[in-house]
Structure formats: structure tokens, C-alpha cells
């Protein structure tokens, strides 16, 4: 049986990659391609709705899919744990499934897991993320997810040490972790987690060089998971076992 997929934001950079993967994956077929300005009724008839739109539209797309009893795969940035908590009871009440993926790159997920595994051993942690100048939101969804994972890994040791965060130049705190966002030409996606303690520091860096090659394997994993999901699943790391002590965990 073929799963019919409606892609909201399917004409954007990420949406185009997702559409190519859907069309190349057995058992899935694109039934509708919407822009972020399309009428939400255009998702009618789909078995699975993929949201690759923009943060301002994403909630409307999700509510519309839930109302129609459709499962969701959400790749739109800006979905923190607090925002997801608003959606969770709606998904559970509808008996549907929603998979939120801040980053489809396996390397990015592993980088976050490595940073989370190291976080309990260092009192200081900060994140520097960079994306192309056309990215609307900041901090990135990946950085938000990473900060939340660092904080979760430090649950028994307490928040990271982050002095002078009342100063704007110290970045935005997410789950106690300062996050610094760069928006500039010549970069696709880059994240550096800098962990520090007395006399030493550890930097974990992930660079996306080719988004098509980097995202396609993760999109395939997420497609199958979203089709069969019940309830809310957060992060690509929730869909396979990384096996790191203190590493990323699902929500």
C-alpha cells in the first residue's frame, strides 16, 4: 500500500530534498506540494503530512493535520520542548503520530549525542551555530535541541556555568546554555559545542557540506517512523540506538 504524502514548504530548499527522497522511496508517493502560503485544505487526502514550512506557519499546519487524523513529520525549525508540549495532548487525543526532527543529518545527531555525553564532565558549555543569511529563525532548531540535550545530561549536576548572561552579547540562553547564532553567506549549516573546565576545553564541530547527501538517509528513517508513529517523537536520535553514555534521548 502506498502512503500518500503532502509536503508543506515543498518548494523550499529542505522541502525539495524531502520531495526527492519521498519520490525515490518505495511505498511513498507525493500527493500534494504546498508552499508556506498555500491553503491548508490542500493537505486533504494525504496519509502523511510533512511540514517543511516556516515557524510562523508550522503550528497551523500541525493543527490542520491533527484535525484530519493525519500523521505528521515536522522538519520546520523553531520547535522547542515548550512548543512541542502544546502539541502533545492534541496528538494524543487524536490518536495520531507526530515526529519532530530538528536536523535530518546523522552526523549532526551524533555530534549532539557526543556533546551530551561529555556535558556532565565540564562545568561550562556554549553553542555557536552558523547558517546561510536566508535562514529566518535563530537560534536554529538544532541548537535548541542540542542545548536541551546538554541540560538533560546534566540533570544530576545542575545547569552549566554561564556568567554575565544578562549582557546581550553573551547570546541567548536555552536550557541555561548560551547559544550564539551567525547568519552569513558561504555556509550551509555549522554547529560547534564548546565545553570547558579547569585547564582544558573540548570542541565538537559538525559541518553540513552537501545537504542532499547529508539529509537523505535521515529523511528515509524519519519517513518510515512518521508513517507508523503514535504519539509524539522528538529527534532523529529517538529512532535508532546511538549507545552513548549520557547521550541524546527521545522525548
Briefly summarize what is shown.
The protein is built from 6 helices and 11 strands. By secondary structure, it is an alpha/beta fold. The protein folds into 2 domains: 3-103 and 211-239, Rossmann fold (3-Layer(aba) Sandwich), CATH 3.40.50.720; 106-208, Dihydrodipicolinate Reductase, domain 2 (2-Layer Sandwich), CATH 3.30.360.
Distance between the termini: 30 Å
CATH class of the largest domain: Alpha Beta
| Outline type | globular
Helix/strand structural class? alpha/beta
Please characterize this protein's 3D structure:
With 251 residues, the protein is of the alpha/beta class. The protein has two domains: 3-103 and 211-239, Rossmann fold, CATH 3.40.50; 106-208, 2-Layer Sandwich (Dihydrodipicolinate Reductase, domain 2). The protein is 33% helix and 26% strand. The protein has helices at 13-23, 55-67, 81-94, 106-118, 141-153, 211-228, and strands at residues 3-8, 28-34, 48-51, 71-74, 97-100, 124-131, 172-174, 177-183, 189-197, 200-208, 231-234. The strands form two sheets. Strands 2-1-3-4-5-11 form a six-stranded parallel β-sheet, with helices on both faces.
